Amino acid sequence: MIVFATGIVSEVVWSEATIHEPGGHPPAGSPPRVLTTLVLTGHEPLRERLRAVVVGRGGMCRAPASVAAAWRAANADHSLVFVDVARPLDGRADEARAIAETLTVRKGVLVAVCGRPAGSADLPPGGDDEECWARQLGAFVYLPGVGSDAGIALLVDEARRIVRGGT
Q1: Which of 69, 115, 129, 165 is the most buried (most CB within 10 A)?
Q2: Is the model more confident about 75 or about 8?
């Protein structure tokens, strides 16, 4: 799979082999998959915002509040995963990165990495370039801070379109 991204909108180009594998396009005439989302952030207001947008757009959402619960939830089937490396669960950025690395290799999983907004004095500086790491990881999108609910809704809609195999 090759992902071309501009902002929060992306286009997925599927290889012929991928179309017939799990996580590829669903067969014609099959019912559309419900977008299942996992939200991993230590910032409670962001966790609730993301959950509200996903559910409001017709998706299902899990949003654990600890690293242990996050690892358990990561073993379930999710189509979209938000991983916050700026304000990780239990303050453990290494665990957030490990979960993101684990999930990006799974077929049919889109990982959105939430990072530090430029010039954010209230967050500790990153040890390395988060956006570069997220792109090398193969993340669906890198969000330097999380913007408006409308922007999140666009991202959720795009993920749903990709998961359903739409164009």
Answers
A1: 115
A2: 75
Q: What CATH class is the domain 2-164?
A: alpha beta
Report the b/e string of 12-40 with b at 16+ CB within 10 A: bebeeebeeeeebbeeeeeeeeebbbbbb
**For 93-121, what is the mean pLDDT?**
87
What residues does each domain of the chain span? 2-164
**Can you tell me the distance from the alpha carbon of 156 to that of 50, in angstroms, rounded to the nearest whole number?**
10
Top pLDDT among 80 and 167 is at 80
CA distances from 75 to 51, 81, 99, 116, 128 (A): 19, 12, 10, 26, 27
Name the pTM for this structure. 0.75
Closest by CA to 114, choosing from 58, 39, 64, 59, is: 39
